[in-house]
Design a protein that fits this description.
mainly alpha; two-stranded parallel ribbon; 16 helices; globular; transmembrane helix; membrane; Fatty acid desaturase; FA_desaturase_dom
């Protein structure tokens, strides 16, 4: 059974329950994520004993706002639409990823998942050698990509085919607004002689990005390039902490099969789809242990 047949097999009551959104569930998830970032940021700013050790968990929390941005792009975390809009804006700002541009990018990824030449996630080749692997996991390529995207969009030179021509002015305005805010924050920090943003935001992001890269590689890495979402996407079985951090996106084949399902309904979606999943893995360490030996020598 492919994902289309699976969705067609759901009863109207099942489909309605699976796609039911909730402001309360979304706000609890968002508050816990942003609250943890604020707490660690406050402890780092206060220079509590051993505060540098807090920068790694802080960075992991910040870069995993990518999953909040991802969910908000689908407008599924909340019943109230503007909550998704602002979640995307705040999350995208904090990880240097323009939310409006990312929405177009991500929808193209869903429309053409694992289709070479059409899926924008395949535009940058996945690592095939040890050197490529460690460079990818370092996060440096993705930071350079984010900065290039911001600069190109702000200059009005966005030519990405997944961005509608009629929306490119809005994409440019978004990037310019983000750059202005970044410059304002930098100027305020310099004027105050404060390094809080550096140690509570910038350095932690650099430290945390490798963990997001390792996580994201498992979503489609080594999956068949076929149309069936239950086969071209991987569900990774992991612990409750990782599922909470990633807004339940380890249920990735389920998400791709039925993107209208909000994050808090994905465990239920998994129970219904489990026997139809084609590609799964028990943990991220196991995925990389299997993935890495297949790399070519440099």
């Amino acid at each position: 059974m492919d994902h289309k047949a699976f969705i067609a097999s759901l009863s109207p009551d099942q489909a309605r329950a699976l796609t039911e959104t909730s402001d309360a569930r979304g706000l609890v998830q968002l508050a816990s994520h942003l609250g943890a970032i604020a707490l660690l940021g406050g402890l780092i700013a206060a220079r509590v004993p051993s505060w540098p050790l807090l920068m790694l968990p802080q960075g992991i929390l910040i870069v995993f706002l990518f999953t909040a941005l991802h969910e908000a792009s689908h407008e599924t975390p909340f019943r109230t639409r503007w909550l998704s809009t602002w979640t995307a804006r705040v999350s995208g700002f904090l990880i240097l990823l323009p939310p409006r541009w990312f929405r177009y990018f991500h929808f193209a990824h869903h429309r053409f998942t694992q289709v070479p030449g059409k899926d924008p996630e395949l535009a940058a080749p996945k690592p095939e050698t040890w050197r490529q692997y460690f460079l990818h996991v370092s996060g440096l390529p993705v930071w350079l990509s984010h900065l290039r995207t911001l600069a190109r969009n702000a200059a009005g030179r966005c030519t990405d085919d997944f961005v509608p021509a009629a929306r490119r002015a809005a994409v440019a305005a978004e990037a310019r607004g983000m750059l202005v805010l970044y410059l304002a924050l930098a100027a305020a920090s310099l004027a105050a002689g404060s390094a809080v943003l550096l140690y509570a935001w910038i350095v932690p992001m650099l430290l945390g990005q490798p963990f997001l890269r390792l996580y994201l590689l498992a979503e489609h890495g080594r999956c068949p390039q076929v149309a069936n979402m239950l086969e071209n996407s991987r569900t990774t079985f992991t612990n409750a902490l990782v599922r909470r951090l990633a807004w339940n996106m380890p249920y990735h084949a389920e998400h791709h099969s039925y993107p209208a399902v909000p994050f808090h309904r994905l465990p239920e979606m998994h129970r219904l789809a489990a026997r139809h999943l084609k590609v799964t893995e028990t943990g991220y360490a196991r995925f990389h242990a299997k993935h890495a030996p297949r790399f070519q020598a440099d």
